[in-house]
Design goal:
Layout lengths: L1 E4 L8 E4 L9 E10 L2 H8 L15 E9 L11 E5 L8 E5 L4 E2 L6 H21 L7 E5 L4 H12 L3 E6 L2 H9 L4 E4 L5 H7 L3 E6 L3 H9 L1 E9 L12 H6 L3 E4 L5 H4 L1 H16 L7 E6 L3 H9 L6 E5 L1
Parallel strand pairs: 8-9, 8-11, 9-10, 11-12, 12-13, 14-15
Antiparallel strand pairs: 1-2, 3-4, 3-6, 3-15, 4-5, 5-7
Length: 319
């Protein structure tokens, strides 16, 4: 089979011919139809992500495809079934082996690119806002990086949950995308004073932050008493340090959230979330935004769209 592999950390990945893997006990072999990209894939290629597989490996966390073979003990899935799976890596290859208990059956209405784009972005926001932060109807949600892969789903789901959504992003074009997905108020982080604008709107009850850096600091200072701040990631490259006295005075809770971590200690949180989200999709309540869909041969170009921040929503590679 053909695979896009990282041979050495810090160097560009490359295409290689490898053997089709064999599923072990409790695993399935999936013929990949689509793989959605994430900022974390860039970190994996550099060797700076918090969880790194052994070399060589194929990046690509989100896979959608058809089951091609079953490992021993797998009885709840059939060959030919259409599934989505978060594997952590391995998606940028024509075939991949994944744990069967992480596979989620696709609705008939959902195509493979949509399914691949659906998983991390929507479930990250769903689990973060609902399970971790307990966002309530009527509260104010501030979303940083609001036009990005996860930020845009936080805008959409926050609005679905009855929150007043403040979307913060760079430039009018990205803010227009956020508005189209349910944002009530817009902040251009290139020109606006985030702290002052949020405070003028009554302050934030929940902050969703995949960016970090100075925006995190400004958002923290715009929080209401008993606000919850979700640290989703650090796309700015700057991991902020938290002044404990600031969170003490306002009784603010800072919540660390790593979606992929649930794979290892509570996978049902993720599969339950995806099942609920697929039901919302079937009802027409949510719709993934894919700004770019490229063929497998153009994987390097697809990754560059993320690196250069030229995408909105999700970038998907199709095989």
């Amino acid at each position: 089979m053909r695979a896009y592999q990282v041979i050495e950390f810090g160097k560009p990945a490359e295409f290689a011919e490898t053997d089709i893997p064999t599923p072990g006990a409790g695993q399935v072999l999936i013929r990949t139809n689509a793989c959605a990209l994430n900022f974390a894939d860039l970190l994996m290629i550099k060797g700076t992500y918090q969880v790194l597989p052994p070399l060589p490996f194929s990046p690509g966390m989100e896979v959608a495809g058809e089951i091609a073979a079953l490992g021993d003990g797998v009885t709840n899935l059939d060959i030919g079934a259409r599934v989505a799976v978060y594997g952590g890596n391995g998606g940028l290859a024509e075939y991949g082996v994944f744990d069967a208990n992480l596979c989620v059956a696709l609705p008939d209405e959902m195509d493979f690119p949509t399914a691949a784009a659906f998983q991390v972005a929507y479930s990250t926001s769903h689990v973060a806002l609902d399970y971790r932060a307990g966002l309530k109807s009527g509260e104010t949600l501030l979303v940083l990086g609001a036009a990005g892969g996860v930020g845009l789903t936080a805008v959409e789901l926050g609005a679905q949950m009855g929150a007043t959504v403040i979307a913060a992003a760079r430039g009018a074009d990205k803010l227009a995308v956020a508005k189209a997905h349910g944002a009530h108020h817009l902040i251009d982080t290139d020109t606006d004073d985030l702290r002052e604008v949020v405070k003028s709107l009554g302050g934030a009850d929940v902050v969703y932050d995949p960016v970090g850096g100075d925006l995190f600091k400004a958002a923290l200072r715009a929080c209401n008493p008993e606000a919850r701040v979700l640290t989703i990631g650090f796309a700015s490259g700057d991991v902020p340090q938290i002044a404990a006295n600031h969170i003490l005075v306002k009784n603010i809770t800072v919540i660390g959230f790593y979606w992929g971590g649930y794979v290892n200690f509570k996978p049902e949180v993720l599969t339950d979330s995806l099942s609920a989200l697929f039901a919302m999709y079937k009802d027409g309540r949510i719709k993934p935004h894919i700004s770019h869909q490229l063929p497998f041969d153009d994987t390097a170009d697809a990754l560059e769209l993320l690196r250069s921040r030229k995408s909105t929503g999700k970038v998907v590679v199709t095989l």
